[in-house]
Write a structure and sequence with these properties.
It is a single chain. The protein has 159 residues and is of the alpha+beta class. It is built from 3 helices and 7 strands, in the order ααβββββββα. It has helices at residues 2-6, 8-30, 133-158; strands at residues 36-37, 41-46, 49-56, 64-69, 94-101, 105-113, 124-129. The strands form 2 sheets. Strands 1-7-3-5 form a 4-stranded antiparallel β-sheet, with no helix packed on it. A 3-stranded antiparallel β-sheet has the order 2-6-4, with no helix packed on it. α2 runs antiparallel to α3 (133-158). It is elongated and about 65 Å long. The mean pLDDT is 84.
């Protein structure tokens, strides 16, 4: 009976880690601003922090041009970031650059693409939280730790 209890702690910790992983995977995609068609103006409130511009369907680097103003009246400066990752859930968004926001307030952004959107689809863009390569590495580590803890807990509970 005592050996079965030894498996409960890693099993619970592993389950918590896997639930947290699911939350971390879904949260950035749930926090994007309401998307607008390419060529339209997106007006949204942002806080202080790192943000990214996302498009759907996906475009290659340099195909999308974005301009806008920040809450302090300065010009939006989008920086290309090769470590930035797209969002997959609940909808696929491709990353198209990031920017740092130093004050909270309203931003105005217009993004456009040269040429037609593939397959006649309506191209859209949005602003959302920045997700970089190191975020993905963290998700993989958390997921692996969760799986290992669940396996160890299950093994200990059986013995």
């Amino acid at each position: 009976m005592v050996s079965r209890r030894r498996g409960v702690t890693p099993l619970v910790l592993g389950a918590v880690a896997l639930v947290a992983l699911i939350g971390l995977l879904l949260l950035p995609g749930m926090r994007v601003a309401t998307p607008v068609p390419l060529g339209s103006e997106l007006v949204t409130e942002v806080g202080k922090g790192e943000y990214a511009l996302y498009t759907s369907p996906g475009f290659r680097w340099g195909e999308v041009e974005c301009e806008g103003t920040l809450p302090d009246g300065s010009e939006l400066r989008v920086r290309p970031d090769m470590t930035q990752q797209g969002l997959l859930l609940p909808r696929r968004w491709s990353s198209n650059g990031s920017f740092e926001q130093t004050t909270a307030g309203t931003i105005h952004v217009v993004c456009a693409v040269d040429g037609a959107v593939a397959d006649g689809a309506v191209g859209e863009f949005t602003v959302g939280p920045y997700v970089g390569f190191l975020h993905i590495v963290g998700y993989v580590v958390l997921g692996a730790a969760g799986v290992v803890l669940v396996l160890v807990g299950a093994f200990r509970a059986r013995s």
